[in-house]
Amino acid sequence: MDYALIWAVIIAIAVLAYVILDGFDLGVGILFPSLNDDEKDAAMNSIAPIWDGNETWLVLGGGGLFAVFPLAYSVIMPAVYAPIIAMLIGLIFRGVAFEYRYRTKKGRYLWDWSFAGGSFVATFSQGMILGTLLQGIEVADRQYAGGWFDWLTPFSIFCGIAVTMGYTLLGGCWLLIKTSGSIEAKLFPKCKRLTLMFLAAIGVVSIWLPFISPEIAARWFTFPNAAAFFLIPIISACAAYKLWHSLSAQKALAAYMWTLVIYLMAFAGFAISIFPYMVPRAITLWEAAAPENSLKFLFAGAAFLLPIIIAYSAYSYWVFRGKVRADEGYHE
Predict the structure, then answer these.
(1) Where would you tag: which of 79, 184, 297, 322 has the fewest CB atoms within 10 A of its CB?
(2) Cα–Cα distances in Å, from 280 out to 46, 175, 295, 296, 306?
(3) Nearest alpha carbon to residue 78 among 7, 138, 22, 162
(4) Where does the record say this protein resides (predicted)?
(5) What is the DSSP letter of 281?
């Protein structure tokens, strides 16, 4: 068995699960300033029981990278220290705001802005980390050889914008599923505008990416790869049409699911662009992997824990299914 490849798939699934699950609750935070007080309470209650469980996948992805691909971890971390620190600070502000905004009246606006600001900073930082990885990291003698601000480029900034638009759209669709009343009237037209901005941003990133590296361009635009890989933009275009139609028909669940299809296609496109590298165009996943005995030992633990995590997450979503109101929540 190729344990390095298996672990690469596991980490990729963990990252995708994090983007899908924590993406919508970060998006709810970004939308927070556009809501009134009752709508903010309902929005908070819609994610309060599940937001911390969603971040389990971030821990799994980061911890798995450290344990299974230590060389990649040692190269990637110095390259993106600044956006990672910013992301963690944003997540801390969000977590504190969850608890404290219910404990104060006069200062609630401070925690509202902490929740919104922390959500935006965490989201934008994740997009910049993605952009830094896609554009490539300078490596020499199996260690990071770039500068302090290699993560700060026009491409990484635009990736930050694209991820922010995508998370905000996911958050809007989630609120349409979980709430009713004034939020619906406000968010259906807003989600249509967000759809256009998200599609424009991800389209620019997708067109820009092949120009970053001749290797990526060759992978996408040479036969027979091109014939297969161009199914991704075709499926994305069909999903975008269905998403727009669902929002126009005010079908919230369908809109959320079609947004996820676009995310899956984007994730597949990025994976195709960098495979088989853990550090794009520098270190392959087999070069970065820990010794095989370590991979086997960790895989045994993952085989036991992953079904538990999945079952717990599914049970949480099932228990807290249905729409929420502003006057109900776990804090009561």
Answers:
(1) 322
(2) 38, 36, 21, 25, 27
(3) 138
(4) Cell membrane
(5) T
What is the pLDDT, as a whole number, of residue 120?
Answer: 94
Phi/psi at 223 (nearest 5 deg)? -80, 140
Identify the CA nearest to 6 among candidates 306, 275, 296: 296
- Contacts of 251-256 with C-beta under 8 Å, sequence gap 24+, read 252/173, 252/176, 252/177, 252/184, 253/177, 255/173, 255/176, 255/191, 256/24, 256/170, 256/173, 256/174, 256/176, 256/177
DSSP line for 168-210: HHHHHHHHHHH--THHHHHHHHHHHHHHHHHHHHHHHHHHHGG
Q: CA triplet 150, 132, 129: central angle to 5 degrees? A: 115
Cβ-based neighbours of 59, under 8 Å, separated by 6 or more? none
* pLDDT for residue 165: 93
Nearest by Cα to 216 from 270, 267, 265: 270
Q: What is the Cα–Cα distance from 150 to 136, expressed in whole angstroms? A: 10
Strand 143-144 versus strand 139-140 pairing type = antiparallel
The DSSP H or E segment spanning 211 is: none
* pLDDT tens profile 148-167: 888 889 999 999 999 999 99
276 preceded by a cis bond (ω within 30 of 0): yes
